[in-house]
Specification:
single chain, 261 residues, alpha+beta, Jelly Rolls, 2 domains, 7-stranded antiparallel sheet, 4-stranded antiparallel sheet, 1 helix, 41% helix, 30% strand
């Protein structure tokens, strides 16, 4: 009976060992399969990383090439802009020279309209710099002024003003020329650097920067005068002008192209 029980125990132990061995073998196989799967996934991911790195390198090369092309195009554009600006500048200079030459030709050939006193030698001279306002000669029609003419008694400087009438017999300075140089005495015709548009009824004023520049007669005109110069936007009242009774007439006026009456 003891022997039978012993055999039973030995048989049970053998079965237990056998079952454990089978389970261990099964677990080992499963781990090997999982390990192989993980290694395969690792290889796949490594390949994908390598592919992405290669793509990144190609993209960087493409970006570098695009930046190079953009730089070349920028340089070409700047070159064309500079060349175009140079050509435009040369054309403008040429056209401006032609315009200036034509203006001077028309001025010297007396082909322009003239507004002002007769350009002759007169008897009297101012003893101080003055702003003279010609109330006798209004602009007869709209157009543009291109220069000034005068019979100068001495060299010096002059500037021309355009006055526009406003209410109550007042005038406002709407334009003033730059200071123009008078290089020698006698009859001089001086072009403005830029023509100025005028309207019918505008008046003219001249600032004579030195004494005894332009001669005048009395009793034959209506040129008034004030002390000191006036800039653009200044208001000039007719009542503040001097010389109403003197009726001065100066040898000075402007040239331009005015619309036909």
């Amino acid at each position: 009976m003891l022997s039978s029980r012993l055999r039973s125990l030995l048989l049970l132990s053998s079965c237990t060992v056998l079952l454990w061995g089978c389970q261990a073998s099964t677990n080992n196989t499963q781990m090997q399969d999982e390990n192989a799967s993980l290694q395969q996934q690792l290889k796949t991911m490594t390949a994908e990383v390598g592919s992405l790195s290669a793509d990144r390198k190609l993209l960087q090369q493409d970006v570098a090439e695009l930046n190079r092309i953009i730089g070349v195009l920028g340089e070409e554009k700047n070159s064309r802009i500079e060349e175009s600006a140079s050509v435009r500048g040369q054309v403008r200079q040429f056209v401006q020279a032609q315009i200036d030459g034509l203006k001077q030709f028309m001025l010297e050939s007396h082909l322009l309209d003239y507004i002002g006193g007769e350009l002759t030698q007169r008897s009297s001279l101012d003893k101080q710099p003055l702003l003279i306002v010609d109330l006798q000669h209004s602009i007869p029609n709209s157009g543009s002024l291109t220069g000034v003419g005068a019979y100068f008694q001495s060299s010096g400087t002059i500037s021309v003003k355009v006055l526009r009438p406003v209410e109550n017999g007042n005038y406002v300075v709407i334009w003033t020329s730059p200071v123009l140089a008078v290089n020698e005495p006698g009859l001089q015709l001086i072009s403005f650097p830029v023509s100025v548009s005028v309207e019918k009824g505008d008046k003219l004023a001249y600032y004579l920067g030195q004494t005894e520049q332009v001669s005048f007669d009395t009793g034959t005109g209506d040129t008034r005068y004030v002390d000191g110069d006036l800039g653009i936007g200044a208001l000039l009242q007719e009542a503040s002008m001097k010389g109403a009774k003197e009726k001065r007439a100066y040898s000075i006026g402007v040239y331009g192209l005015l619309k036909a009456l």
